[in-house]
């Protein structure tokens, strides 16, 4: 029996306040199986105790072009069917006035299903984003290291700190850093300024950064990771990203993998024409993450998990990949945390 495909998609412009920054976006909901866009608190007839035969892998297209890979995973408990048919697409601080949006899902046999009807969204009429995610203690192991970083392509933290790469810029980074915890590149001072917005159900991360300090998570303990190429140090070592059947695969090394439904991965890439001597600020990154994953894959810590996208097949030359992994859970009083990985890459 073939998996259902998304239909009856609704799209509205919404924004997220992130400190002093206002991120515009598009809130999407759709029908998948018996799960309607406005399903509410009534359990869908095909929910199957949290194991419905719904697709997990989606693509979002904007203005006729693929813009984002989305992996949706959900908790089994009430009412997480609402997490199986909705998604927010970040458009950044200065979006276009109008977008045409459609989505499609890839089924377990690897084939893409049909697109939804295309919907036009006017961003000038955006309203505040709000999505209630029920609170519940997450399932995670105890006594493990914290927390993780991109293994492939190798992050700067892994190259410079864990693997002690001998490149001059890596040696200089180790001199400047005061922390050797490669798996915990996090912003400092979040106790009074929590990253997780429990009232509206999303992660605030942009408010912690000013200037070219994305690689260090704006944390002085990792300031060596912000070094820009040049100045007698050469370039950061790069990983070559080669597509296999049009797909690129990323590997994340978890030392403790949060399984709660309030956790997400977001992958960003530098804009075309980026110069590594500029360093890495949010201004040099594409505003829409090319890949997003919700809830993780339901796996445990101390594993390396892979994530695949088809959206980078046309990229060429030198780029950087930025991964933001974070969320809020009961273990942190729903105040949240997030981890930053920056990987230097070369497309053939």
Oligomer: single chain
- CATH class of the largest domain, anyone? Mainly Beta
Shape: globular
Reading the helices and strands in chain order gives: EEEEEEEEEHHEEEEEEEEE
Strand order of the largest sheet: 7-6-3-4-15-14-17-18-12
Portion of residues within helices: under 10%
In CATH, what is the homologous superfamily of the largest domain? chitin-binding protein cbp21
Structural class: mainly beta
% residues in beta strands: 25-35%
> Residue-averaged pLDDT, rounded?
91
**Total count of domains:** 2
InterPro entries: Cellulose/chitin-bd_N, FN3_sf, GlcNAc_Chitin_IntDeg, Ig-like_fold, Ig_E-set
Domain Chitin-binding type-4: 147-345
Pfam families: LPMO_10
Protein name: Chitin-binding type-4 domain-containing protein
List keywords for this structure.
348 residues; mainly beta; Immunoglobulin-like; Coagulation Factor XIII, Chain A, domain 1; 2 domains; nine-stranded mixed sheet; four-stranded mixed sheet; 34% strand
Note down, in words, how this protein is organized.
The protein is mostly beta strands and 348 residues long. It folds into 2 domains: 7-128, Immunoglobulin-like (Sandwich), CATH 2.60.40.10; 148-347, chitin-binding protein cbp21 (Coagulation Factor XIII, Chain A, domain 1). It is 5% helix and 34% strand. The chain has a 9-stranded mixed β-sheet with strand order 7-6-3-4-15-14-17-18-12, with no helix packed on it. The longest helix has 9 residues, at 168-176.
